[in-house]
Write a structure and sequence with these properties.
The protein is of the alpha/beta class. 39% of the residues lie in helices and 15% in strands. It folds into 2 domains: 166 residues, Aspartate Aminotransferase, domain 1; 236 residues, Aspartate Aminotransferase, domain 2 (3-Layer(aba) Sandwich). The longest helix is centred in the C-terminal third of the chain and has 23 residues.
């Protein structure tokens, strides 16, 4: 049993100590050391290129977090960045009024996304999911919301309730992915006053195994929305432009009324979208108010248009699926070889290695040791979030990662 030497993360720790006097918690939200393995992972990064990262201490990693999802092509993708630089230098991007690129991107989305007839552009995924709920409530004149999945940090949906009055979330009810029976029961009770059913069409719950839809699950949710006159919303922040260009709704052939988009659409530039059926979207024309100084900024429109152009032109998603399926198959072979309780879930563009829960709780120690070995070897995955494949991952990157997984699982087998 050979343990990989610990990384030198001295500068990261120094910066975090300083940050803790300047920013509550030192760094924001899911980037805190406790969301990785404290003392093992870097806290501050210096640069990234392609599928590789370098931290402030000079450690280099093959990255599978992809910025928590928005990097579908690769870091510092030159063609996208050059298009943005050109826009900034020659046209500008933040004005009192809107530039024409809004229309061009909305037209493009209507060609790609099955549910898209009209669009509203925002900045973050939380903006998009929250706007979709406001639109659904205005359209239906109803109040209650049924939800499944993580939908951001705003008052109506965040799990940590500190600072949020109960009245802001008391009309929101949760059901679990692939549990149509739970949704049916909720709708029997609240259906007549339900404005929206919002869900991730592919199951990627935080800290848990990933799930594909059981037969009839998505169709059943669609039928329940229709039966009770609720708006069906897909949160495709992570899945659109990754599972398919048109998202999980294209892959699984069930179309919602509204869709929240973001993440990979602009390869890291800040943009999100609520897009959907015209009759529902038109509630935003006169029944509610959505606005921000930065929502119409064109640099992210340009980045999105260029990213979508590259995704289509270079057949990027087909290549990611091919690469990812081969990679996942080899991971599964390693898991079978070592038999230490590891489990692989997900689909080719998004995967997750977890450990089977058992009464002794040793799965937590195995998980910690496994991911500690990987980060020390220079492979950036995390025990508490699924991983992504991006276009700039090379076969060499993936083979090196497989070797590291093999060695790390061997370490777990010998230790336990």
């Amino acid at each position: 049993m050979k343990e990989t030497p610990k990384l030198n993360i001295t500068k990261s720790l120094e910066l975090f100590k300083e940050a803790s006097t300047l920013i509550p918690g030192g760094v924001l939200g899911a980037r805190k050391p406790g969301d990785f393995i404290a003392g093992e992972y870097p806290i501050f990064l210096e640069s990234g290129k392609g599928a590789h990262l370098i931290d402030v201490d000079g450690n280099e990693f093959i990255d599978f977090l992809c910025g928590y999802g928005p990097i579908i092509l690769g870091y510092r993708e030159e063609e996208v960045d050059e298009a943005v630089y050109k826009q900034i230098k020659e046209k500008g991007f933040c004005f009192t009024l809107t530039q024409k690129y809004q229309n061009k991107l909305a037209k493009k989305l209507s060609q790609i996304i099955p549910s898209s007839e009209m669009s509203i552009f925002l900045k973050t995924g939380s903006d998009a999911t929250t706007a979709s709920i406001r639109i659904a409530r205005a359209h239906t004149n109803k109040l209650k919301v049924m939800r499944c999945g993580y939908h951001g940090w705003h008052d109506w949906c965040i799990e940590m309730k500190g600072g949020i009055p109960k009245k802001f979330f008391e009309d929101v009810f949760e059901f679990q992915y692939n549990r149509l029976d739970q949704l049916e029961e909720l709708m029997k009770t609240h259906g007549s006053d339900t404005a929206a059913i919002i869900m991730t069409p592919f199951g990627h719950p935080n800290h848990q195994e990933m799930q594909t839809p059981a037969p009839g699950f998505l169709e059943g949710a669609r039928d329940l929305a229709d039966k009770y006159g609720a708006v069906l919303i897909y949160d495709e922040i992570r899945t659109c432009f990754r599972l398919r260009m048109g998202g999980a709704q294209e892959l699984y052939n069930v179309t919602p009324d509204l869709t929240a988009l973001g993440k990979a659409m602009a390869n890291g530039y800040p943009i999100s979208v609520v897009t959907g059926k015209k009759d529902v979207m038109m509630a935003a024309e006169s029944k509610l108010f959505i606005s921000s100084t930065f929502f119409p900024n064109s640099e992210a429109f340009i980045a999105a248009l260029k990213t979508i152009e590259i995704l289509e032109r270079d057949n990027v998603l087909a290549k990611i699926w091919e690469m990812g399926e081969r990679f996942m198959g080899k991971i599964q072979t390693l898991i079978d070889k070592h038999d230490v309780g590891a489990e692989l879930t997900g689909v080719a563009p998004m995967f997750y290695i977890t450990f089977k829960k058992e009464e002794t709780g040793s799965y937590k120690a195995k998980r910690k040791d496994f991911y500690t070995q990987l980060i020390r070897k220079g492979f950036f995955l995390t025990p508490f979030h699924h991983a992504y494949i991006c276009y700039r991952h090379t076969e060499e990157d993936l083979e090196k990662t497989l070797n590291a997984i093999d060695e790390s699982l061997s370490f777990i087998r010998d230790k336990y």
